[in-house]
Amino acid sequence: MTRIIMSGCSGRMGRVITELVKGMDDAEIVGGIDIIDDGTLGYPVFKSVAEIDVSADAIIDFSSPKVVDALLDYSVEKNLPLVLCTTGLSEEQIGKVEEASKKVAVLRSANMSLGINTIIEILKTATSVFCPAGFDVEIVEQHHHTKLDAPSGTAIALADAINEAAGGEFEYVYDRSDRRQVRDKKELGISAVRAGTIPGTHDVIFAGQDEVIEFRHIAYSRNIFGNGAISAAKFLAGKPAGMYTMADVISDAIK
């Protein structure tokens, strides 16, 4: 049984994870951290990490950058593995995450979907095959019209995986409206669509001479991110200090 503390428990992802864990025999949320507590979560909710008085095996964090510093300090102090899902961290905070990982197990990911993270690993192999053969690479991501940021963090993560596998040779191009020229071979185009209630959709296109290979991922609900975070917490519990990724979780699952 993996005992979990849910940071950001009253937020959308916190509630999703709470409901998912209720149906599991091998995981339990023993406490939450949030400034809001409407009494419906079924476990004690603490307004800050300083108030926590329960024992656990791991923390899942879907909160705010404002909470992360205190959470990292608590994680190190209690030697409590941390699944860090909060985005928008400053460079200073990212440095603090790396320092904390020298003392406790930390897994940080901008996207907790097992599907997206599996595709990221597949893309590294695809890049090593298609890019030396002269294939162009484009990423198109689509989301509902209320999403604020563009391109999505996931689109950037996909691009980064491709660029890393290609030795960092690509330039990311987000807008070609001011370019009247032939596409450069070192371009990696990233396009964003915002419309209606489109679910999170990411397409990676490798386009060569007379053939096109596409990888597509569609997120129909937040459950996929919740299940990924829970899998990560189960994986991280009991692990030695270090910086882990979702690739480690996937690798462990297929052993």
Question: Whole-Å distance between the termini?
Answer: 20 Å
Oligomer status? single chain
**Structural shape:** elongated
Structural class: alpha/beta
Strand order within the widest sheet?
3-2-1-4-5-6-12
How much of the sequence lies in strands comes to 25-35%
Tell me how many strands there are.
Answer: 12
How many helical stretches?
7
Structural Rg: 20 Å
Secondary structure: helix percent: 25-40%
- Main sheet record: 7 strands, parallel
Order of helices and strands: EHEEEHEHEHEHEEEEHEH
Which structural traits does this protein have?
255 residues; alpha/beta; seven-stranded parallel beta sheet; five-stranded mixed beta sheet; 7 helices; 12 strands; 26% strand
SSE layout and pairing:
Layout: E1 2-7, H1 12-22, E2 27-33, E3 45-46, E4 58-61, H2 65-78, E5 82-84, H3 91-100, E6 105-108, H4 114-130, E7 136-143, H5 153-165, E8 171-173, E9 187-194, E10 200-208, E11 211-219, H6 223-236, E12 242-244, H7 246-253
Parallel strand pairs: 1-2, 1-4, 2-3, 4-5, 5-6, 6-12, 7-9, 8-9
Antiparallel strand pairs: 7-10, 10-11
Structure in words:
The chain contains seven helices and twelve strands. Helix 1 packs across helix 6, helix 2 (65-78) runs parallel beside helix 3 (91-100) and helix 4 (114-130) packs parallel to helix 5 (153-165). By secondary structure, the protein is an alpha/beta fold. The longest helix has 17 residues, at 114-130.
